[in-house]
């Protein structure tokens, strides 16, 4: 999606990724096969470029630091990626800067986790390597303790969540800031993945202002140009807490392609190319339905109900071009736009039942 947006600008794109059949491979000008975690691979790849951005935090940050020191524009800055890529340093960063987040303790082993019975109910999150709900375990009672991680992790107090929202914040090299209207998540308790999303979220003015102020604080304290998604919890008492931040274009911003004047992808190009930030306002409210691989289906992907969905008005299907599906794999998303929230909810539910990724 970032590469699709690049077509509007005079920019030559290079992609580094280990899978030459990945969706980005045929959309860039130059594809380089290689491991983003390897220092030399990232350094050799970046040396020839004017500007670099990332899609996933697991990238080799030391190589990015070296590239930055040699004059390559790296947005987000490696210093911001370093804080964010490990949930332990990320939580410590919020605490250090007085940014509201749930209380936490750090654990290194399962034995150590067992010392924190009085801290329950809580959520255990692995420091590095977790993604899309993997690396997160809910520990409600003592009997759940063995589900935790035998690795450096954070144990966070369980928040009584009223709403999960995400705020996308853009920061230019000149420190100019733009913030998108919030998105509201509805999650699937079984897969622990996003079920569908509405934007702009229904929030009181007071909660909205708090959420905006906190999201902007996070990005200002990270002190890095780039595009950031700040995931927040609104708790039962209307307090707003940071869950986590992604230093990149994010699934909570897919709707901005059709629903906002400047999409998150267009915005990141503006930042990378040194242009003024775009208009973040919503043209119309929107919903996103994630297309996940259906349970019990692994293999070459087929899309059941596709034609029916394509018949629907103001519905935009995005298939990522991944050839193989497996249960829970993100295969695409569908955006719905409408001035009427009821229409959004109705269509989101209809699409969820109609469109299936099977093998
Ligand atoms: P990931 O990085 O894998 O997306 P998250 O840290 O966002 O993992 O956690 C996944 C989900 O788990 C969240 O969307 C939320 O529903 C739930 N969760 C995470 N942390 C807490 C918490 N402290 N209290 C209550 N629920 C939480």
TrEMBL record:
Species whose genome carries this gene: Russula earlei
Protein name, per record: 5-imidazole ribonucleotide synthase
């Amino acid at each position: 999606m970032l590469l699709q947006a690049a077509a509007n600008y005079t920019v030559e794109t290079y992609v580094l990724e280990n899978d030459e059949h990945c969706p980005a491979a045929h959309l860039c000008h130059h594809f380089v096969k290689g491991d983003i975690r390897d220092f030399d691979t990232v350094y050799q790849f970046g040396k020839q470029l004017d500007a670099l951005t990332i899609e996933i935090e697991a990238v080799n940050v030391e190589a990015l630091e070296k590239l930055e020191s040699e004059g390559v524009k790296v947005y987000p800055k490696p210093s911001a990626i370093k804080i964010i890529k490990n949930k332990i340093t990320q939580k410590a960063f919020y605490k250090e800067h007085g940014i509201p987040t749930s209380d936490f303790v750090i654990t290194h082993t399962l034995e150590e986790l067992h010392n924190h019975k009085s801290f329950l109910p809580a959520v255990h999150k692995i420091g590095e390597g977790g993604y899309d709900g993997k690396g997160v375990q809910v520990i409600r009672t003592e009997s759940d303790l063995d589900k935790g991680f035998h690795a450096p992790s954070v144990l966070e107090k369980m928040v009584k969540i009223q709403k999960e929202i995400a705020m996308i914040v853009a920061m230019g090299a000149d420190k100019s800031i733009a913030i998108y209207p919030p998105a509201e998540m509805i999650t699937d308790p079984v897969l622990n993945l996003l079920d569908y999303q509405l934007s702009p979220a229904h929030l009181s003015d007071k909660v909205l202002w708090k959420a905006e102020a906190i999201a902007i604080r996070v990005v200002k304290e990270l002190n890095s140009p780039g595009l950031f998604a700040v995931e927040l919890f609104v708790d039962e008492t209307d307090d707003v807490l940071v869950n986590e931040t992604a230093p990149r274009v994010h699934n909570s911003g897919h709707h901005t392609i059709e629903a906002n004047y400047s999409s998150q992808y267009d915005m990141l190009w503006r930042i990378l190319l040194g242009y003024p930030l775009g208009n973040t306002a919503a043209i119309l409210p929107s919903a996103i339905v994630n297309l996940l691989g259906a349970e019990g289906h692994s293999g070459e992907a087929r899309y059941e109900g596709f034609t029916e969905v394509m018949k629907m008005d103001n519905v935009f299907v995005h298939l990522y071009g991944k050839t193989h599906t497996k249960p829970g794999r993100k295969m695409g998303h569908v955006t719905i736009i409408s001035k009427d929230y009821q229409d959004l909810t109705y269509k989101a539910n209809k699409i969820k039942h109609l469109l299936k990724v099977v093998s």
